Amino acid sequence: MNKDTIGIYISKDALDAHRLSTGAAAQFANSQTGLRALRRWIGADSPGLIVYEATGVYHGPLERAFAGVLPLVKVNPLQARRFAQACGTRAKTDAVDARILAVMGAALDLEPDKLSDENQPALKELQIARMALIKDRTRLMNRLKTQTLPLTKRQTKSRLTQITRQLEELDAELLTQVWACPQRERAFDILCSIPGSGQSRRLP
Question: What three-state secondary structure class fits 23?
Fold first, then answer.
């Protein structure tokens, strides 16, 4: 297996990469164009590991582009910081952090992460959208209680109707995504079988 390790430090706007075997370093935009350029920089031969930190929403594009294609290893930022301190590294720049991640992957003999469900990112996005709509609905319902003008009441009711329709669309898509995974479908069926769960297994 190729033992070459690449560390990638991910920020909102940039991807700083460091190849341990050669010391080569490069920076790319954290965008689809930048990811394509990064893939070309990595080359045709897959490295042994590509190590990066969990950075909330910022590492998502890299995972979606390379999961199942390259050997990705996501590490805890605190774990990476402690490793850097143990190595005596005091400097804190994105380029240095990328190098430390590459060294960490090789020194700790990390293993590539197992590939998660392909529909996991879609489920998360749908859930976030659903939560936002529920918050909007609660806010509008509270506002409706204090409104007196026919115009404002009509507009609020119109928006509530729209939110209800959008929630139905999201719920339908969530069920479609759940049923695309046999394990999730079975778990959902078990949930629906519990009396009082409020869940029903209906087609979108």
Answer: coil
